[in-house]
Write a structure and sequence with these properties.
alpha+beta, Nuclear Transport Factor 2, Chain: A, six-stranded mixed β-sheet, 4 helices
């Protein structure tokens, strides 16, 4: 089952995130799918909620691309460590486009049931992203 679940998650990242094919979201996630994340205003619910979230990110970063660095699967869980890159050419989090290229790292833990992703816990370097985009100033180095 581990290989099958990792393949499901990998295909969803390729089809939805990298290719921007939102029409296939229901092929990968359940009708009661929930994402626990911090950058959105709380949890994202169902295929429509995640479709809206992905579309918002793709408008902000049209060239958004995810690379899977590693995956581990056990029982009904798949952990994916990823890196993403994109150019901010659209509004993001209420901020105007910066035109800056950014790269972030993160990981997701997906829970699978009945052949679909039913739950995801997503964490990534939000502060690093905001610093790269110039939304938050880079911290001064610590003084000895």
């Amino acid at each position: 089952m581990s290989r099958k679940y990792k393949d499901l998650v990998s295909r969803s990242i390729q089809d939805v995130w990298n290719e921007g094919n939102f029409d296939v979201i229901e092929d990968y996630v359940s009708s009661d799918f929930v994402v626990h994340g911090s950058i959105a205003s709380g949890d994202t619910l169902g295929p429509d909620g995640i479709r809206e979230y992905f579309a918002t990110l793709r408008r902000a970063f049209p060239d958004l691309h995810f690379t899977i660095e590693s995956q581990i699967a056990e029982d009904d869980l798949v952990v994916t460590r990823w890196e993403a890159s994109g150019t901010n050419t659209g509004e993001f989090q209420g901020m105007p486009p910066t035109g800056k290229q950014c790269q972030i790292a993160g990981h997701d833990i997906d829970r699978i049931a009945n052949g679909k992703i039913v739950e995801c816990w997503s964490l990534f370097d939000e502060l690093g992203l905001f610093i790269e985009l110039g939304i938050v100033p880079s911290p001064e180095p610590a003084k000895p």
